[in-house]
Design goal:
With 122 residues, the chain is mainly alpha-helical. 69% of the residues lie in helices and 11% in strands. It contains 6 helices and 3 strands, in the order αααβααββα. It has a 3-stranded antiparallel beta sheet. The chain starts with a helix and ends with a helix. It comes from [Bacillus] enclensis. InterPro entries: ArsR-like_HTH (IPR011991), HTH_ArsR_DNA-bd_dom (IPR001845), Metal_resp_trans_reg (IPR051011), WH-like_DNA-bd_sf (IPR036388), WH_DNA-bd_sf (IPR036390). This is DNA-binding transcriptional regulator, ArsR family. Keywords: DNA-binding, Transcription, Transcription regulation.
Length: 122
């Protein structure tokens, strides 16, 4: 029984240390972080932007390709891409006169994929 008691004490100590670590790291969110987090959730709260990000998670596309595949106006796509680019969620490369967009933030793309997985298996 002594081993079980020692193990329980060790787990209690680990749990206490984890709580203390959490207290230290969660004291306050700086304004810049708070702004970026809320803007990221704002970006993901709009269905057209989610559709665009989901498409770009698969491979890069031009504005015209995005508009065609998602049945959207080119101006709508351009507007949404500008919003996403300002948050550094998408990036682009130029080839001649054409801009090709792709996902630019693995963390947010992983979160989006996980959320979609959650929605499909809820």
């Amino acid at each position: 029984m002594g081993k079980d008691k020692d193990k329980k004490h060790e787990l209690d100590t680990q749990h206490h240390d984890e709580i203390e670590d959490t207290k230290e790291t969660c004291v306050e969110i700086d304004e810049e972080t708070l702004f970026i987090v809320t803007q990221t959730f704002k970006a993901l709260s709009e269905p057209t932007r989610v559709r665009i990000l989901h498409l770009l998670a698969q491979k890069e596309h031009s504005v015209n390709e995005i508009a065609e595949k998602l049945s959207l106006l080119q101006t709508t796509v351009s507007h949404q891409l500008r919003f996403l680019k300002n948050l550094r969620l998408v990036k682009y490369r130029r080839e001649g006169t054409t801009l090709y967009y792709s996902a630019d933030d693995d963390h947010v793309m992983n979160m989006l994929q996980q959320t979609m997985h959650h929605a499909r298996h809820h």
